[in-house]
Amino acid sequence: MTTTPGLGEWKPFGNGLGRARQTRPIGQGDAPNRHQQRQGIVPPPVQNHNFEIKLGMINLVQNKMFHGLPSEDPIDHLDEFDRLCDLTKINGVSEDAIKLRLFPMSLADKAHQWEKSLPHGTITTWDECKKAFLAKFFSTGRTAKLRGEISSFIQRNNETFAEAWERFKGYTSQCPHHGFNNESLLSTLYRGCLPRYREMLDTASNGNFLNQDVDDGWQLVENMAISTECYGEHMKVQTGARPRTRSSWTLR
């Protein structure tokens, strides 16, 4: 370090004229000096100046949090969220405006981190939000597993027909994009039923269930499930009683 008469102490990284430059601490950039809200989900503006989401509604939403765990069902979360939001209707305020404001409040942990990491303005409609949410949390592995449960469905020995039907419908509702049409679903169910229930379906269909019209076949299955549930088919199977006859399952 040198000293020049009349100029004071010489700085090695000056501006070339020998005058001292303004210094900045090396660690100055290690902490943010401003904050901008991270908002990947951007609700539309609301013209109604009296618009307010009540605290009670916020509490309801936050009591049904989605964490992004493998054990959680993202479709169930969307169903429940939609039901809660349907409780709030405000004149002049769109569905997008309400749901996009509330939805981030329903997310926690991994799901909350996902929402915060979205680039600003990525989502501006409720449909976009649902698509992005399902793309993130409804994995291709979950889809493959549920499609496999549907295509390889087998009724368990200890299941009534009603229980088997509810389980089968559960797989299809958990994976609405399964890709099977109703003809394939009914055929799969029929082939996976225990023999005594296939016989019931055939008997109620004049010999062959697979010759039924699709809508009639669906209704027949529903009727048979209701009857087995109402009349305690499980107890009859346990005690060795004969299944009900054709007249019990005919279309109503």
Kindly describe this structure.
By secondary structure, the protein is mainly alpha-helical. The protein has two domains: 55-138, no CATH class; 142-248, no CATH class. 47% of the residues lie in helices and 2% in strands. It contains eleven helices and two strands. The termini are far apart. 20% of the residues are buried. InterPro entries: Retrotrans_gag_dom (IPR005162). This is Retrotransposon gag domain-containing protein. Residues 1-47 are annotated as: Disordered. It holds the Pfam family Retrotrans_gag.
Q: What percent strand?
A: under 5%
Mean pLDDT equals 85
Shape: elongated
Task: Please give the domain count.
Answer: 2
Which spans of ≥5 residues are poorly predicted at pLDDT below 50?
239-248
Counting DSSP E segments of at least 2 residues, the number of strands comes to 2
Q: Give me the strand/helix succession.
A: EEHHHHHHHHHHH
What distance separates the N and C termini?
102 Å
* Gyration radius, rounded: 32 Å
Protein name: Retrotransposon gag domain-containing protein
Region (Disordered): 1-47
InterPro entries: Retrotrans_gag_dom
Pfam family, one: Retrotrans_gag
Topology:
Layout: E1 3-4, E2 8-9, H1 55-62, H2 74-85, H3 95-102, H4 109-117, H5 126-137, H6 140-151, H7 161-174, H8 182-192, H9 195-203, H10 214-230, H11 233-239
Antiparallel strand pairs: 1-2
Helix pairs in contact: 6-7, 7-10
